[in-house]
């Protein structure tokens, strides 16, 4: 009997850069720095992307959306999420739930959590209750502790439809 449930884990990190808006979970966050990346630099969505693709054994975000490809320059990561979800849906998978931890000293995530859950759920075509987003600090340790950037870890549970 084939296994119907599949788990994927995704990790992403980007350094802060001036002159760019900060987008997390598809939401523009009020902060003086953005994240350096080829796309919009949304570490939360990027971690979810790799978790979804990993659970479906469908490669990774770099293979699906190559960072040097001009089609993805400044791309909205929620659109990339939507496209990845279409791919795994065609393979017979549906999302059971998404859980994400964002690691940064600043900005504070709590004020944006609901809006981020809405944006991610919409991009994936699922209910808000299927998306959990949490913020945490790393107690001023490492690059996030020095306020040099943001990291995110996502776990996704997929169910394969018969």
Low confidence ranges: none
The termini sit apart by 11 Å
CATH architecture: 2-Layer Sandwich
- What summary fits the major beta sheet? 5 strands, mixed
Percent in strands: 25-35%
According to CATH, the fold-level topology is 60s Ribosomal Protein L30, Chain: A
CATH class: Alpha Beta
Average pLDDT level: 93
- Identify the CATH homologous superfamily: 2-C-methyl-D-erythritol 2,4-cyclodiphosphate synthase
Describe the fold and architecture.
The protein has five helices and seven strands, in the order ββββαααβαβαβ. With 162 residues, the chain is an alpha+beta fold. A hairpin with a 2-residue loop joins β2 and β3. α1 runs parallel beside α3 and α3 crosses α4. It has a five-stranded mixed β-sheet.
Provide key terms for this protein:
29% helix; alpha+beta; 162 residues; two-stranded antiparallel ribbon; 60s Ribosomal Protein L30, Chain: A; 7 strands; 5 helices; 5-stranded mixed beta sheet
């Amino acid at each position: 009997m084939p296994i119907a449930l599949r788990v994927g884990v995704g990790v992403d990190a980007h350094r802060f850069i001036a002159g760019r808006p900060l987008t997390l979970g598809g939401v523009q966050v009020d902060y003086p720095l953005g994240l350096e990346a080829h796309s919009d630099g949304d570490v939360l969505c990027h971690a979810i992307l790799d978790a979804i693709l990993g659970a479906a054994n469908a490669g990774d975000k770099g293979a699906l959306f190559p960072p040097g490809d001009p089609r993805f320059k400044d791309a909205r990561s929620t659109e990339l999420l939507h496209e990845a979800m279409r791919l795994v849906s065609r393979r017979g998978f549906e999302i059971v739930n998404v859980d994400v931890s964002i690691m940064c000293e600043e900005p504070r995530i709590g004020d944006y959590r609901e809006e981020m859950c809405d944006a991610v759920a919409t991009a994936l075509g699922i209910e808000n209750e299927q998306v959990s987003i949490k913020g945490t600090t790393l107690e001023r340790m490492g690059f996030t502790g020095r306020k040099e950037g943001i990291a995110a870890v996502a776990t996704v549970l997929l169910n394969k439809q018969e």
